[in-house]
């Protein structure tokens, strides 16, 4: 069992930046994908960004050019740098670790991001 703990959320004005962190209790290289999802009130959870074991990244169209996913293998941490934030980015952001063997799918508890206009 791997624990994922998100941090870094908060309240920010539109145009501002935040960096989210997802600290894992085990090696993040044991997962095929590390992902950030978000869920706004009344909306389904959506994939925001992903980084695979080879460090290739992918982003939702709505955040391309504004968000960057990265990782620090030694610190067992995945980051989401969010720039030029918009009110529509307001959501609870969740870290997710997925492995195709099993499959295994772990989730963090989420961190709230609120962007004021």
Radius of gyration: 13 Å
- List the secondary-structure elements in sequence, H or E: EEEEEEEEEEE
Residues in helix, %: under 10%
**Overall shape:** globular
Mean pLDDT: 97
- The rounded distance between the terminal residues' Cα atoms is 40 Å
What fraction of the residues are assigned to beta strands by DSSP? over 45%
What kind of sheet is the major sheet? 7 strands, mixed
Structural class: mainly beta
Count every beta strand, where a strand is a DSSP E run of 2 or more residues: 11
Q: Helix tally? A: 0
Low-confidence stretches: none
What does this structure look like?
This protein is mainly β. 0% of the residues lie in helices and 54% in strands. The chain has strands spanning 4-7, 10-13, 18-24, 33-39, 46-52, 57-59, 67-72, 77-82, 91-99, 104-107, 111-116. Strands 2, 4, 5, 6, 9, 10 and 11 form a seven-stranded mixed beta sheet that branches. It has a four-stranded antiparallel beta sheet with strand order 1-3-8-7, with no helix packed on it. Strand 7 and strand 8 (77-82) form a beta hairpin. The mean pLDDT is 97.
């Amino acid at each position: 069992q791997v624990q994922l703990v998100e941090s870094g959320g908060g309240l920010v004005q539109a145009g501002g930046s935040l960096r989210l962190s997802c600290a894992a209790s085990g090696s993040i290289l044991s997962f095929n994908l590390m992902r950030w999802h978000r869920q706004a009130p009344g909306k389904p959870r959506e994939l925001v960004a992903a980084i695979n074991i080879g460090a290739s990244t992918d982003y939702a169209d709505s955040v391309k050019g504004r968000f960057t996913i990265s990782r620090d293998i030694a610190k067992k941490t995945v980051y989401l740098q969010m720039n030029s934030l918009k009110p529509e980015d307001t959501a609870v952001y969740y870290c997710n670790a997925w492995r195709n063997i099993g499959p295994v799918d772990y989730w963090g508890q989420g961190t709230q991001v609120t962007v004021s206009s």
